[in-house]
C-alpha cells in the first residue's frame, strides 16, 4: 500500500538501441533527465515536426528492497508518447500503443529483490505509427517522450484493482447513495471489504458505511457481477472479482459548477482484522443529463460555455508537471469564467481533470484522433483507447460526456458501434458523443456533437439544431466554432483583434438564443504548435483566445465578462487613430461585466454606456459599441439646440467611424438640414470635427473609462499616449515545491504603458536570467509578440531562494523572488 514515484534519475538518449535493455549497459554517457520529459525541446515556432520524431530510450535503475517479497508491484506510466515497450533487466514486460492513456505493468516477479534492477523504455514518437491519431495530417503537434508521471504501487497479493464510484441521487440530494463497482484481485476467503465516505473539503473523519462487506463466498448474494468463481475457500483466485456495492449516504451536498463539493470513498480490504489494501476515490454527487432541449445539471438547465484545450506548452510540448496542468483549469474557470472544457483531441492529464473536479469545470473528453480512420488494427487500438479512457477517467465528477468518434471523421457505423458499446459497457452513467463536422451524419451516440464553422463575421453565429442534426429528439451540442475562420495573432492590427473578439461574441450570443443547443466549445483556449499543413507557416496555429503562454487576446474578454466574480473592463482600441485606414476608427467596443461605463475625454465626461446598450440580446454581458465621442458637449459647450446638437453629433460620430467620405446618405441629409437651418458651413464642420473627434494633424486625446458596478467604480482604463515602457510579470506561484517531481512556475510577461495597457506592437527582445536553484525552460533571450510572451522556471531538486530577472533595453528590469521549499 505504498506508491513510489519514479520521476527522477532517468537516463535518456535520442537513439534507442537494443543495448540499452541490457542490465549491464554502461549508461553513464546518457543524459540525466527527470519526468515529465519531452524527447526534444523545440523553439517557440519555425521548426520542423520531424525534430521530435524518433525512437528514443530511457533507462532507470531501481533498487528493489527485500521487503517487497510477495508483494504485487504495479508499474504505471501515466503518459508516454506514443508507442512504448518496457523492459526489466533485459526482458520485455509490457507495451502500450497510445500516447494519451496510462498503462500498468505487473512487475511483481520481474524485479530481483535486494538488488538494483534496470527499467528500460523504448519510446517511439514517430508519426508514421499505425495507431491513432496517426495516418494522415493532424492539426496539432504530437510531441514525444515520457511526459507524465511514472510510479510503482506496492500492494499485497490480494489487492483492489479498481473502484468505480457511481451515485444515486434522490431529490434535493436527500437519500443519496454510492454505487461502487469494486474489482478485487487475488481474492481468497476471509477477506472482506469495508467502505467509508467523507466530504473532501472538510477535515472530516471517514464515516464507515454499513457493516463490513464480506468479499468472500458469503458475500456472493450481494454481488451482481462476478467473473471469477472461488472454488476452494483457501485457494486464492488470481483473477479479478467485481462487486457492486450500494450504500445509502443520506443527504449529501451536490457537486455543481458553482459549488463543486467533492467526496471521498475509501475502500479497504480487511483480512484477519488487518487492512491489507485501500483505495480512496474522489467523486461527486451530481446529476448531469443531456436532454433533447439542452443540458441539465442537478435538475437545472445550464448552457455549456467552454473552450477547447490542447495539452501543449511552448518549448517542452506535452511535458509539464502538476502545477502547470492545474493552472490551465484555473485560467479557464477563474480568468475566462467558463463552465466547461473539451479536451481536444485526447484524454489529458489527471492533474488537469482533478482541478476541473475541484473547480466545477465540466469536461467533455474524447479518444485520440483527428479526422483519419485507419485499418482494422488501427481501429482495434482506437477501441482499446476508448476502454482505457473510460476506465481511467470515469470517477471524475467533472466529466459529463465521452467522445467516442475520431474528431471530424466520416461515418463508419461498424466501427462506431464498437466504440459506443465499449464506452457504455464500462460506464452506464454517462452519455456518449462524437465530434463530427458533417450535418445529418449517422447518430449512434447519445448526443450529436458538431463543429459549427458557419459564422464568417457577417452571417448568424451558428446553425439551428434543425439544420444540423439527424435526430431532433437527441441532444445537440456545438463542439467547436471560430478557430480557422479567423486566425488572430497578438500583433495583428487592432481592428483584426477586435473582429476576432466580436466573432466569439456573435457565436456565443446565437448559441444563447437557441434554447435547444446544449452549449458550445469555442476553438480554442490558446495558440498551439501545429504541423506544416496548418497554421500560419511558423508552426503555430493562431486560433487561441490566448497566446501560447496563456496571455489573453481581446477575445478572451468576451468570455471573461460572462463571470461576475472579478470586474473586467477592456476597450478594443488603443484610441490611436493612426492605426486605422484613413484614420477612421472603425467599430470600437467596450467589454465589461459592470453595470455601466463612463467615458471621459481629456477629463471631461462624455457619456455613460450601459450594459443594455449592447446590440446583443442573449448574453448577460456583451460588447457595447462605443458610438459617441461627443456626449452633450455640443449642447453645453457650443450652445446649440438639442436638435441641432443631436444631428451634428450623429454626423461627427459616424465620420469618426467610417470617415467623412464614406458617410451614408442619411448623414448627408442631416448635414444639408444643418446648413439650411443653422447656416453651418464646411469650415464650422471641420473645426468641430477636429475639436470633438480629432483627426490626422490634431493633437491626441486622453480617454478614461470607469466601469461602475452597484454605484462604485470597480475598474478604470486609461488611453493616453505612452511615455515609458514597463515590463509586467505575472507569476502563477512564487513558492515552488517538489512533491513527486520538479515544479514549474509560469511567468506571463507583458510590455505595458504606465497605465497597464499592453503595448500591442512591442515585439522587442527581453533577457531572462535566473539565480539560485532553478532553471529556465526555453531560451534566455525571447521576443515579446504583440507585447506579450513568457517563460517558465523549473526547480532543480534543491531548496532555497531564487530570482528571475527580466530586462529589456527600454524598460526597467523586473526581479521576481522565488522560494523553493
Ligand atoms: C477543426 C478541428 C480542430 C482545429 C480546428 C481549427 O476542424 O477539429 O482540431 O483544427 O478545426 O479551426
Could you describe the 3D structure shown?
This protein is α+β, with helices and mostly antiparallel strands and 821 residues long. Helices cover 16% and strands 33% of the residues. It has eleven helices and 50 strands. A six-stranded antiparallel β-sheet has the order 3-2-4-10-7-8, with no helix packed on it. Strands 28-27-26-25-24-32 form a six-stranded parallel β-sheet. Strands 15, 16, 17, 19 and 20 form a five-stranded antiparallel β-sheet that branches. A hairpin with a 7-residue loop joins β15 (191-199) and β16 (207-208). The longest helix is centred in the middle third of the chain and has 20 residues, at 494-513. The chain is globular, with a radius of gyration of 30 Å. The chain starts with a strand and ends with a strand. Residues 217-235 have low confidence and may be disordered. The structure holds beta-D-galactopyranose (GAL). Beta-D-galactopyranose binds at residues 139, 344, 407-408, 437, 451, 480, 483-484, 523, 543.
Strand fraction: 25-35%
The hetero molecules present are:
beta-D-galactopyranose
Strand order of the largest sheet: 3-2-4-10-7-8
Number of helices: 11
Structural class: alpha+beta
Overall geometric form: globular
Largest sheet: 6 strands, antiparallel
Radius of gyration: 30 Å
Average pLDDT, all residues: 93
Identify the notable features of this structure and list them briefly.
33% strand; 821 residues; binds beta-D-galactopyranose; six-stranded antiparallel β-sheet; alpha+beta; 50 strands; 16% helix; single chain; 11 helices
Amino acid at each position: 500500500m505504498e506508491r513510489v514515484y519514479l520521476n527522477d534519475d532517468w537516463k535518456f538518449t535520442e537513439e534507442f538501441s537494443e543495448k540499452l535493455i541490457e542490465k549491464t549497459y554502461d549508461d553513464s554517457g546518457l543524459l540525466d533527465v527527470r519526468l515529465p520529459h519531452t524527447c526534444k525541446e523545440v523553439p517557440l515556432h519555425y521548426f520542423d515536426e520531424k525534430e521530435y520524431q524518433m525512437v528514443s530510450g530511457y533507462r532507470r535503475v531501481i533498487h528493489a528492497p527485500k521487503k517487497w517479497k510477495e508483494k504485487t508491484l504495479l508499474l504505471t506510466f501515466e503518459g508516454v508518447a506514443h508507442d512504448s515497450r518496457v523492459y526489466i533487466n533485459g526482458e520485455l514486460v509490457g507495451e502500450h500503443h497510445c500516447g494519451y492513456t496510462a498503462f500498468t505493468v505487473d512487475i511483481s516477479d520481474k524485479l530481483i529483490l535486494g538488488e538494483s534492477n534496470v527499467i528500460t523504455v523504448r519510446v517511439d514518437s514517430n508519426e508514421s505509427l499505425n495507431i491513432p491519431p496517426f495516418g494522415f495530417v493532424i492539426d496539432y503537434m504530437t510531441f514525444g517522450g515520457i511526459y507524465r508521471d511514472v510510479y510503482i504501487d506496492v500492494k499485497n497479493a490480494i489487492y483492489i484493482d479498481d473502484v468505480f464510484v457511481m451515485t444515486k441521487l434522490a431529490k434535493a440530494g436527500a437519500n443519496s447513495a454510492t454505487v461502487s463497482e469494486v474489482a478485487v484481485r487475488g481474492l481468497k476467503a476471509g477477506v472482506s471489504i469495508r467502505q467509508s465516505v467523507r466530504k473532501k473539503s472538510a477535515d472530516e473523519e471517514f464515516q464507515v458505511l454499513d457493516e463490513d462487506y464480506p468479499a468472500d463466498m458469503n458475500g456472493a448474494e450481494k454481488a451482481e457481477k462476478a467473473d471469477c468463481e472461488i472454488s476452494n475457500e483457501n485457494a486464492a483466485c488470481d483473477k479479478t472479482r467485481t462487486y457492486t456495492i450500494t450504500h445509502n449516504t443520506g443527504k449529501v451536498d451536490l457537486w455543481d459548477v458553482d459549488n463543486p463539493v467533492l467526496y471521498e470513498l475509501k475502500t479497504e480490504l480487511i483480512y484477519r482484522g488487518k487492512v491489507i489494501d485501500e483505495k480512496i476515490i474522489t467523486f461527486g454527487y451530481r446529476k448531469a443529463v443531456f436532454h433533447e432541449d439542452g443540458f441539465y445539471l442537478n435538475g437545472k438547465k445550464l448552457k455549456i460555455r467552454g473552450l477547447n484545450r490542447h495539452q501543449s506548452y511552448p518549448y517542452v510540448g506535452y511535458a509539464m508537471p502538476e502545477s502547470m496542468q492545474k493552472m490551465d483549469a484555473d485560467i479557464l474557470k477563474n480568468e475566462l469564467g467558463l463552465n466547461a472544457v473539451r479536451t481536444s483531441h485526447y484524454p489529458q492529464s489527471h492533474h488537469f481533470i482533478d482541478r476541473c473536479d475541484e473547480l466545477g469545470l465540466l469536461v467533455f473528453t474524447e479518444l485520440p484522433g483527428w479526422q483519419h480512420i485507419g485499418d482494422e488494427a488501427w481501429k482495434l487500438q482506437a477501441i482499446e483507447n476508448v476502454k482505457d479512457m473510460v476506465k481511467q477517467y470515469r470517477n471524475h465528477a467533472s466529466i459529463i460526456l465521452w467522445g467516442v468518434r475520431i474528431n471530424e471523421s466520416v461515418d463508419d457505423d461498424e466501427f462506431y458501434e464498437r466504440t459506443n458499446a465499449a464506452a457504455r459497457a464500462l460506464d452506464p452513467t454517462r452519455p456518449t458523443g462524437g465530434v463530427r463536422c458533417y450535418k445529418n451524419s449517422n447518430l449512434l451516440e447519445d448526443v450529436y456533437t458538431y463543429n459549427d464553422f458557419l459564422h464568417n463575421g457577417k452571417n448568424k453565429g451558428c446553425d439551428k439544431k434543425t439544420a444540423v442534426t439527424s435526430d431532433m429528439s437527441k441532444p445537440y451540442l456545438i463542439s467547436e466554432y471560430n478557430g480557422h475562420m479567423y486566425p488572430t495573432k497578438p500583433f495583428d492590427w487592432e481592428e483584426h483583434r477586435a473582429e476576432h473578439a466580436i466573432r466569439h461574441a456573435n457565436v456565443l450570443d446565437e448559441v444563447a438564443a437557441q434554447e435547444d443547443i446544449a452549449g458550445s466549445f469555442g476553438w480554442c483556449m490558446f495558440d498551439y504548435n501545429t504541423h506544416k499543413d496548418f497554421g500560419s507557416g511558423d508552426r503555430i496555429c493562431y486560433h487561441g483566445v490566448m497566446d501560447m503562454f496563456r496571455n489573453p487576446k481581446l477575445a478572451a474578454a468576451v468570455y471573461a465578462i460572462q463571470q461576475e466574480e472579478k470586474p473586467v473592463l477592456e476597450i478594443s482600441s488603443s484610441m490611436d487613430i493612426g492605426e486605422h485606414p484613413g484614420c477612421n476608427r472603425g467599430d470600437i467596443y467596450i467589454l465589461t461585466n459592470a453595470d455601466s461605463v463612463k467615458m471621459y475625454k481629456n477629463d471631461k465626461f462624455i457619456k455613460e454606456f450601459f450594459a443594455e446598450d449592447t446590440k446583443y440580446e442573449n448574453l448577460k454581458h456583451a460588447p457595447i459599441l462605443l458610438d459617441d465621442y461627443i456626449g452633450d458637449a455640443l449642447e453645453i459647450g457650443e450652445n446649440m439646440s438639442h436638435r441641432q446638437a443631436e444631428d451634428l453629433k450623429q454626423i461627427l460620430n459616424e465620420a469618426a467611424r467610417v470617415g467623412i467620405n464614406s458617410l451614408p446618405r442619411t448623414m448627408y441629409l442631416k448635414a444639408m438640414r444643418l446648413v439650411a437651418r443653422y447656416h453651418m458651413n464646411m469650415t464650422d464642420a471641420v473645426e468641430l470635427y477636429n475639436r470633438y473627434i480629432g483627426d490626422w494633424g490634431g493633437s491626441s486625446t486622453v480617454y478614461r473609462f470607469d466601469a461602475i458596478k452597484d454605484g462604485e467604480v470597480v475598474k478604470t482604463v486609461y488611453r493616453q499616449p505612452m511615455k515609458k515602457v514597463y515590463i509586467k510579470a505575472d507569476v502563477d506561484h512564487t513558492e515552488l515545491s517538489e512533491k513527486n517531481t520538479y515544479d514549474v512556475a509560469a511567468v506571463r510577461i507583458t510590455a505595458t504603458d504606465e497605465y497597464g495597457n499592453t503595448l500591442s506592437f512591442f515585439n522587442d527582445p527581453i533577457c531572462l536570467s535566473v539565480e539560485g536553484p532553478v532553471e529556465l525552460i526555453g531560451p534566455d533571450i525571447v521576443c515579446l509578440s504583440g507585447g506579450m510572451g513568457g517563460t517558465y522556471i523549473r526547480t532543480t531538486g534543491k531548496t532555497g531562494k531564487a530570482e528571475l530577472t527580466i530586462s529589456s533595453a527600454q524598460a526597467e528590469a523586473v526581479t521576481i523572488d522565488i522560494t523553493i521549499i
